[in-house]
User: Fold this.
Amino acid sequence: MLLVIAGVLHPSAVAQVLHGEWVDRSQEAIEDHRRTPVKVVVLDENDRAVRGAQVRIEQTRHDFVLGFAVVQPQPPEGDAAERPVWCCFNAVALDRLTALRFAAAFDPAEADTAARQWGGWLSPIQISYGPVLSADAARLPDAVVQMDAASFAGFVDERLGIALRSDRAVDRFDLYADALSHRLPEDRLGDGLLNRLYDTAGARRPGATLGLRVSDVLSQNRARDLRQRLQALDIRQVPIDEVTIEQAFVGTVNPVGLERILRDQIATLGLPVTIANLDVGGGSSAAAAINLEAVLRLAYATPNIRGVYLAGLYGHEFEEPTSALIDDAGEPTACGDLVEAMFRGLWWTDVTRTADDLGNVVERVYTGWYRITATLPDGRTLTTEVYLPKSDETPYVVLQAGPRE
Assistant:
């Protein structure tokens, strides 16, 4: 079934907001899974509630990981927080710099430089190294594919060593990629290879996220195949932290079909999921934005999806140029406007409330990092910064005035 949805202009956003029963269901899921309660308590220096204090709850970063694959080791000039589209992102992926399709294309020093440069510029909550070892011969240099078992084992150790020596800013690795339909390293070195990969990485980089990457699970409805592969690896006790789905959508996205796959297959995997190298195009820039909203909305509504990395930002970085978020002049495209409208508008908390008689303000907020400011009736200002993750209980944030000078 092919479902075509027309976009309409939302009165308070710069991009279209879709409508339909699936949109209502997704928004309900987002309200449930991506928002959390918080109570702000304002006290004076004598521990008394401050009635009428003006409390601003200002989000500074999302908890949900929203990133993109970088092409250049160095970021652009200027402040990311002040730039349209760029201000939405809190993560970067080094996939384009660490890819091993061609041996000469990979420069470990360049990847380390990129991690440091982008980490300092964007202040991300996550930097993803990308795939470390591919199971697909087509993604390995011919010389590697033709190696005997002993030489291939040495290549695997070298590749793992390079990745794990990378800059400490890198905290996420897809140790094994293209693992749904291919098994080249396992066939060469035995089933114990994956246990050794993940055990070694866990020992050398404790605390890092160690993922398993697969491709085109969502568009081709191969989620059942993924489940079977994960079950087989679980039996072998391979310590995978997360599943990464590398995904491109061609043509019109069917949101109802995608919703079903995410709800019935992906949400029940029993592991966190990240979507990587996401490429969502369309017949025009407007059509691409409609498709992109459907994918981002449904991903954000799926509780075990931790984040999304786009395949790039500019047209030449995608398979379809209409996927671009920024045009050649540096201005936001329809897709760029869409991302900003959703992640810095619709799914963003920035509110001012008046404290009640008990000095309290209770609010439901999108999970993430916040700056909370209380302005007292006498003009004094109290400020704090907090991280508010998803919680079934209401956390308290206490702002108390110090002694008067």
